[in-house]
Amino acid sequence: MYKILLADDEGIELDALAFILEKNFPRQCIIETVKTGCDAVELAERFRPDIAVMDIRMPGINGMEAIQAIQATSPGILFIVLTAYDKFEYAKEAIRLSVFEFLTKPVNRLVFADVLRRAMGKIDFERKARNTALKTRERMEKMLPVLENSFAYLLLMQNDDAAAYARLFDILGIDSRFATVMVLELIRSPGGDMLDLDIKASEGYAVIRGLIKESFPCVVGPAMANRIIIVRPADEPENEYYERLLLIEQGRALAHRVEDKSGVECKLGIGSTVSLGNLCESYAQAVKALKHCKGIVSHFNDLPIVSDYETGYPAEREKHLEEMILRGDAQAASADAEAFFQWMVERYPEHDMAIRLKVLEFVMRAEYSVFHEGGGIKYHFLDRDDYLQTVLATETFEELKGWFLRKIAESARNASTKADEKANRVIVKARAFIDRNFSRDLTLEEVSREVHVSPYYFSKLFKEQTGDNYINYLTQRRIETAKLLLADGKLNIKAICNEIGYNDPNYFSRLFKRFEGVTPTEYREQVLKISNN
User: Fold this and answer.
1) Do 28 and 113 touch, CB atoms closer than 8 A?
2) What is the distance of C-alpha 374 from the center of its chain?
3) Pick from 314, 394, 309, 317: which is nearest to 347 by CA?
4) Model pLDDT for residues 62-100, shown as the tens digit of each residue
5) Rounded to 10 degrees, what is the CA torsion of 103, 106, 109, 111?
């Protein structure tokens, strides 16, 4: 339905326009008419038309002035201008006011109907676009908590994938590559228990989430036990001290508002502002700040226990080296170790004992980490019996570096070997389970549960170890068994279909042809033909 306003000081003209509309668009229009510019402005505010057909020459304010006044309060209306005069006189003003069409009187009824039809088409398009935008917005609003929860779960899983965080920021419309992680913790009331607190947190989560969102732009995770993870996007830190003060004040205000609205006391731990690749570190800091919080809000950088490196110390290089060792990347670990060693000898060339001790510390720490993280390594007390003697006996930095790099690469290879061995054991066990159970409905979740890993990790691991995905492997296993049964000739197609885990013979036939190039029946005929010859 379209609401149309007709404005013309001639009654006959109004009747003619209304007649054309009713004849060409029966039961599609609600029509209101006026004879002056002032009446048109007043009616437009009350009637809210989709289309306004305006005569330029009317008593009082003219049509152009009326259009300008109406656009100030109702900018979405399409205007069609009528004039008995030359178009050129008003063309410039009509363009400025974004008039949809300019018609000269007397108006041809076919032309007028066509203009209205095009105007209605534009209205339909804009309505559809608005509806689509609203539906998209509704979907995004429904997805928003899910996406924000994903952010919190990545932090809980200690996932340092900067690209994943950046993608989530982009989807959420956040233009930032730095952020601060905070953790809000609800405090148990005297005599209360954790279950009671969990219930209160769940019931009041919507209110608390709203208060957090009002306090600062941020990503808010779910209520997990009595804690809520908050990720506040930020610019690259320029003045850490003043930014810290601002966050603390905002945190205090938030804690008081949560207590006032929900009746539950809380405290807030705040981590440092970091790049997206270091969000897990900021989260760990927020948890530590929460643990040592004596009042309402605690910032990690205010804690007396905060450690720091000397100026110029390659802390990021050291951290990356540790990560590469545990990842089993011997080449990257060796490159990091060499760069770190080079920094030591350039910075402290006269302190060879400090360098020797640092090398020894790093090698032993690397082996300790691989032993505890990698698993499957047998510990022998005397394995490092010669380490100290070897390090002290080196006569040059080059010799010391060679020993250092060999030991770092060895630790990385051990981590890689153990990871591969574990992965191989998982895949071998999974394949055996699939081979025993492929004749029934077998899901990825069931197989991953059998080998005690998550479905996502199992799927990724299966692809890495076999070069194929789980579904293809399962299908190939079934097709190979089907080929044997078809060649045997004892079972019909439907029985074979059921035997290998499919319920629909038509689906099985299409699948078989996709893999083998022929249908099961054609395959059986080919095999019989060969055996008879």
Assistant:
1) no
2) 30
3) 314
4) 888 888 888 888 888 999 988 876 555 565 566 666 788
5) -30
The pTM of this model reads 0.43
CATH number listed for the domain at residues 158-302: 3.30.70.270
Handedness of CA 500, 503, 505, 506 (dihedral sign): negative
**Domain spans, the chain:** 2-127, 158-302, 310-467
Render pLDDT for 329-377 as a digit per residue (tens, 0 to 9).
Answer: 889 999 999 999 999 999 999 999 999 999 999 999 888 888 876 555 6
Which superfamily does CATH assign the domain made up of 2-127 to? Response regulator (3.40.50.2300)
DSSP label of 270:
E
User: In this structure, are strands 297-299 and 266-275 parallel, antiparallel, or unpaired?
Assistant: parallel
Q: Is 297 helix (H, G, I), strand (E, B) or coil?
A: strand
DSSP 329-349: -HHHHHHHHHHHHHHHHHH-T
pLDDT of residue 424: 72
Cα dist from 285 to 181, 184, 277, 300, 408, whole Å: 8, 13, 15, 6, 29
Token match 């002056």: residue? 36
Q: What is the pLDDT of residue 431?
A: 85
Q: And the tokens for 212?
A: 């957090």
Paired with 195 in beta bridges are none
Q: Cis peptide before 106, with omega less than 30 degrees from 0?
A: yes
The answer to whether 112 and 100 have CB atoms below 8 angstroms apart is no
User: How far apart are the C-alpha atoms of 515 and 533, rounded to whole Å?
Assistant: 26
Q: What CA–CA distance (Å, rounded) separates 319 from 63? A: 73
Structure tokens at 379: 């510990």
Provide the H-helix boundaries in 97-161.
109-156
CA nearest 418: which of 371, 381, 488, 361? 371
Q: Range with the lowest mean pLDDT among 231-235, 299-303, 328-332, 414-418? A: 414-418
pLDDT tens per residue across span 166-188? 888 888 888 888 999 999 998 86
Instruction: Scan for tokens 């079934």, then name that residue.
Output: 478
Give me the residues paired with residue 52 across strands: 5, 79
Contacts of 439 (CB under 8 A, 6+ apart): 481, 499, 500, 501
